[in-house]
Specification:
Helices cover 37% and strands 10% of the residues. It has a 3-stranded parallel sheet with strand order 2-1-3, covered by helices on one side. It has helices at 17-25, 35-43, 54-59, 85-89, 93-101; strands spanning 10-13, 29-32, 49-50. The chain contains 5 helices and 3 strands; from the N terminus they run βαβαβααα. The longest helix is centred in the N-terminal third of the chain and has 9 residues, at 17-25. By secondary structure, it is of the alpha/beta class. The termini are far apart.
Length: 102
């Protein structure tokens, strides 16, 4: 039986089957709403909450229309550096070291 900790919470999730399935399994009612529409969806209570990293909450000023923020660590989104080998090779050594170690 799935863990039911978010019973009935209407939560905005990005359009991904994985997050929709995760929040359904936790008892929430996930909605795939465009990020551009999220602020007004929170403001008009179309959704009760949202799933986003802190950077997007700050950028979108979502703190203006939501009362709480929970840091759940339920997923990880890494940032990848993709570049042409020659472009990387042309960087000064200190910058290449940073890219290779972080």
């Amino acid at each position: 039986m799935p863990l039911r900790t978010l019973n009935g919470l209407k939560i905005r999730v990005p359009v991904t089957a994985l997050l929709t399935s995760l929040f359904t399994g936790l008892g929430a009612s996930p909605s795939s709403i465009s990020y551009n529409e999220l602020y007004s969806a929170l403001q008009t209570h179309v959704v009760d909450g949202q799933e986003n990293p802190l950077a997007l909450i700050g950028t979108g000023k979502l703190y203006e229309v939501q009362k709480y923020c929970a840091l759940s660590n339920h997923c990880w989104s890494g940032f990848w550096i993709v570049a042409n080998t020659r472009a990387i090779a042309s960087l000064p050594n200190p910058l290449r070291e940073i890219l290779n170690t972080h």
